[in-house]
């Protein structure tokens, strides 16, 4: 019986230089190099060694293509979480819907959103955030909601960089997605974010089709329109939260196979990392550690968003790779107009 092997440390006898070449999403200066935005080091080597081991025919770690499944958290793993993009969408929706709800001017948590008072909004706690999300995401069909999201993304900008949110994605992770898919992996998003919010843009931005996006859901009701068309009407009620243990439960329900690689950034990804790496055979668990205040942001244990404490403590004993954005990535975001943009401007 094959025993589980973790690639949190460089696998003995393998060299990163022997990894198969692949055309990654790289900057022109590094085109042709595997994981071009990753600095040489243990993190990059652990990834390339793992992929070589599980994709080399005849290797004791070989994994058939059908079982090559990799799961990725979204917020702070694939794109920025400061600010949280879907929350920014919800706040803008509050202002857009305000003419229909003038009472919101004096009601929390809506007043805080209208006033852009993040401290007051935070004081409403999780209940307040959920109320805003439910109220602004419901009252329409799935198709109508998709149009609202697409229209917002076309004009919304990150408050610090001034770039579209769909450009505030991590170049090294885009390269990793391409690298894995080049070697026969199916890549899935498994996120606490709203599934219908992410499915609007995930394929264009990440190359991940809608059916491979798993996330939190609100309840829907089938109804027939005046024209006789069947529609799914979105209700202001939580159906499923895809976070914590919910992530591994959703993987079992929708993917129906245990992944062999998992990528996250916070304690919300802990159970997904555990579920993935405790299977038999070769496994890869990776945590993106936000420790680069100059080029992005630095936060972990004491953060209200993307808290990383338990998973960070467990990473060493579990053999998970902890990626330092500061040390392991020489580029954070994709180039823009031929210039590297790191979001620090």
TrEMBL record:
InterPro entries: HAD-like_SerB, HAD-like_sf, HAD_sf, TAT_signal. Its EC number is 3.1.3.3. Its cofactor is Mg(2+). Keywords: Amino-acid biosynthesis, Hydrolase, Magnesium, Metal-binding, Serine biosynthesis. One of its GO terms (molecular function) is magnesium ion binding. Pathway: Amino-acid biosynthesis; L-serine biosynthesis; L-serine from 3-phospho-D-glycerate: step 3/3. GO terms for biological process: L-serine biosynthetic process. GO terms for cellular component: cytoplasm. It catalyses: O-phospho-L-serine + H2O = L-serine + phosphate; O-phospho-D-serine + H2O = D-serine + phosphate. The keyword Magnesium applies. Pfam families: HAD (PF12710). This is phosphoserine phosphatase.
């Amino acid at each position: 019986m094959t025993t589980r092997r973790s690639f949190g440390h460089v696998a003995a006898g393998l060299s990163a230089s022997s990894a198969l070449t692949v055309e990654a999403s790289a900057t022109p200066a590094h085109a042709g190099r595997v994981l071009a935005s990753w600095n040489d080091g243990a993190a990059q080597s652990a990834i390339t060694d793992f992929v070589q081991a599980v994709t080399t025919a005849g290797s004791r770690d070989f994994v058939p293509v059908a079982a090559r499944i990799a799961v990725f958290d979204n917020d702070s793993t694939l794109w920025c979480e400061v600010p949280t993009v879907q929350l920014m969408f919800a706040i803008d929706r509050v202002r857009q819907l305000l003419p229909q709800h003038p009472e919101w001017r004096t009601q929390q948590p809506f007043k805080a959103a209208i006033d852009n008072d993040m401290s007051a909004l935070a004081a409403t706690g999780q209940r307040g955030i959920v109320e805003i999300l439910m109220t602004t995401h419901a009252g329409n069909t799935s198709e109508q909601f998709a149009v609202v999201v697409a229209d917002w993304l076309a004009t919304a900008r990150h408050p610090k960089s001034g770039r579209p949110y769909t450009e505030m994605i991590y170049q090294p992770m885009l390269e990793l997605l391409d690298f894995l898919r080049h070697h026969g992996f199916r890549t899935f998003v498994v996120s606490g974010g709203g599934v219908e919010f992410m499915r609007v843009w995930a394929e264009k931005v990440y190359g991940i089709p809608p059916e491979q996006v798993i996330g939190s859901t609100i309840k829907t009701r089938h109804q027939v329109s005046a024209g006789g068309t069947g529609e799914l009407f979105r209700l202001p009620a939580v159906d499923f939260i895809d976070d914590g243990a919910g992530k591994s439960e959703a993987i079992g329900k929708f993917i129906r196979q245990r992944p062999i690689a998992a990528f996250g950034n916070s304690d919300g990804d802990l159970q997904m990392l555990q579920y993935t790496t405790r299977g038999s055979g070769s496994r890869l668990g990776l945590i993106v550690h936000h420790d680069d205040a100059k080029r992005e942001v630095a936060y972990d244990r004491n953060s209200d968003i993307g808290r990383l404490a338990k998973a960070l403590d467990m990473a060493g004993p579990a053999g998970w790779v902890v990626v330092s954005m500061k040390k392991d990535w020489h580029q954070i975001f994709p180039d823009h107009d031929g210039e590297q943009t790191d979001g620090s401007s």
